[in-house]
Amino acid sequence: MITIEDIIKEENKVFSKTKLLTDKTFSYCPGCGHGVAHRIIMEVIEEMGINEQTIGVAPVGCSVLAYDFMDVDMQQAAHGRAPAVATGISRVFPEKYVFTYQGDGDLAAIGTAETIHACSRAENIVIFFINNGIYGMTGGQMAPTTLVGMKTSTSPHGRDLHNMGFPIKITEMVAQLDGVQFVTRQSVHTPSAVRKTKKAVKKAFENIKNKKGVSFIEIVSNCNSGWKMTPVKSNEWMEENMFPVYPLGDIKG
Fold it and tell me: Is the pTM above the cut of 0.85?
């Protein structure tokens, strides 16, 4: 029986968890941006009413945990191979909304070739790219996106430009490819940033509906455990150091 108190409570509600997140407690480190990114993606899928038509692909790294929390059909892929797996799914089921959810050590390192060629082929998928500049799950090693001078477990004195080269800005790289319709770089560390990211996510899934090719969304995030910082300090460090190298905003489309 619905009471007056229930009605008032529902009317006064300003937020409720999307039904497309499972009830399992997030296993990510406190302060990590993965949980917010998960929530945004699932909210958009629920609001668009496409949960029964959506298939996600999560490879190795912290991203592999996504299937524990995203209550849509999920497929695991080998390290770096998510765009290739997503290609197969999308071509077999062209009516589906197919996305990948990948970290920088995955997408911009072992998966560079799969990323570039899926984008070049204009596969009708969304690629979500979480960039925290480090290998978060496997020990905090230097990644292709690690900043010059940034300390990691494999660059304890900081990334040396002479020996280790520049960080790879793969988002700018894929934006040059004709098969890519929409490219943006966003974040999830503030309410304003979350709203902008959610708007981008919705646009990306609408592009799938309209058969427009690849939509590529980079989310610059923190890794407070890997960076050896508190969550608050890691967000401040991200703003001061990551954003100048990886500036936020739409790049294409």
Answer: yes
